[in-house]
Fold:
Amino acid sequence: MERQAETKPLDEHYLIARKLSWQQQLFRRVIPWLRDYANRDQTLAAERAEMDRLSRFMLMPRGVTTQTVMVGDMPATWITPANAVPGRALLHAHGGGFITGSRQTHRALVARLTLACRARALVYDYRLAPEHAHPAALDDTLAAYSWLRGAGFAPAQIILCGDSAGGALVLLALLKLRDAGDPLPSSAVCLSPVTDLTGSGETMISNAERAILLKPEHLTGMPHYVGAQDASSGQVSPLFADLHDLPPLLILAGSIEILLSDATRFADKALAAGVDATLEVWPGMWHDWPVFAPFLPEAQDAIRRIGAFVEAVQGY
Structure:
């Protein structure tokens, strides 16, 4: 039976009170141009290559080292910060609408997360749609989690993290592990997550005009990822699953993004199921804004907030 998620107005207590930076005003003017350039008429292969090329402008922070590893036959990158706590690991599922993105496009973001969380991080090249539909990317995420455990990392010291489409993979992985009776990670962090692959969220419409990075017409990858599956199933859209017995969650979303209601509805449902879930809605922020660190103060602050959450959950 299909599970429906209720659309409700944004609860004001989710909003973070802060003054917007001048950099935010600048980015709001520049990002639409970058978005249109990246989404110009070109093949999917060219779009993926363009994203990799543009990501090279996102500077890696000092104090981290990288190492290419293989998770089975899946390429991945270990990112190790100088301040890593022994035994603590972050597993990051990158965004990209299920059809683009890679460990290259997100390594600068993940490197900053490692420093904030004082944890090594594994970012991996999961299989993309349309070549590989659901559950390929989810299976790869579970394989990466299993690889970390096999490398000696205890579940209690592993944090799952994902942005955009990667947020969906993180939440689906938690549900899959829970249902299988496998040990869950200590916590999970989702940045602007996709939780409803039916696209039924209210802000898909109400934020369509003011969204500056991700527009409804850019979500062409979702049907390719869903493939022959039912998008209203909890096995595909985490919003429609039973959310009991999940680990602590931190969910960050921007007030002007079309996926805002994906975050708010999931947080409301998780809280109702007894999950220790924290949702923060950042005013004036767009989809996946932490990617723009170090150039955007709000991005750096969001990364610091994630670090504080991880430190609180880990307890040291």
